[in-house]
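Hey,
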Amino acid sequence: MNNCPIVCMFTDSNIIWPVITGIVFGVLLQKGGVTSYNTIVNQFRFKDFTVLKIMLTAIIVGGIGVWLLHGQNLASYHIKPANMLGVSIGAVIFGIGMVLYGYCPGTAVAAIGTGSVHALVGFAGMMVGGIIYALSFPWVKANILSVAALGKVRLPDITGVPDGVWFLGLTAVAIAVFVLIHRQENKS
């Protein structure tokens, strides 16, 4: 970057669009109700399915959107290595943390934006965890990420089933889940 003051940094399109996107994402999380500790915790109590509905919608819309953009050569896939032991351990740690904290990282930052002090305290814990992971990464890479490492693969690559069929199936599953949730909510 040149000798421009910090204010000029925010006029650079490489910075401004991510900032605007982040603000819009935070507002949408707030409007969707997932910046509330009770909404997140009640998902795990099977009393409020707002989080599941938002996540399924995001997965379907985002996945199909990226697939369509990729098909038009307007985007490219950036496949992360499928390190199955690392993903499994990470999922367990993430799940336990989310249950105890009551937020995922995105909803935590949005909750902080709404003035939530307990979200801010938990965010400090996320930062400490990130630092510990960064410091221990050489050991993690040698002893965890190398176990059950499948490389940069996707389900369509492994199964031979085209992307469109996967997204169609995923959409069908999401619709079925939405119907089940709707029926459950109407019983209550």
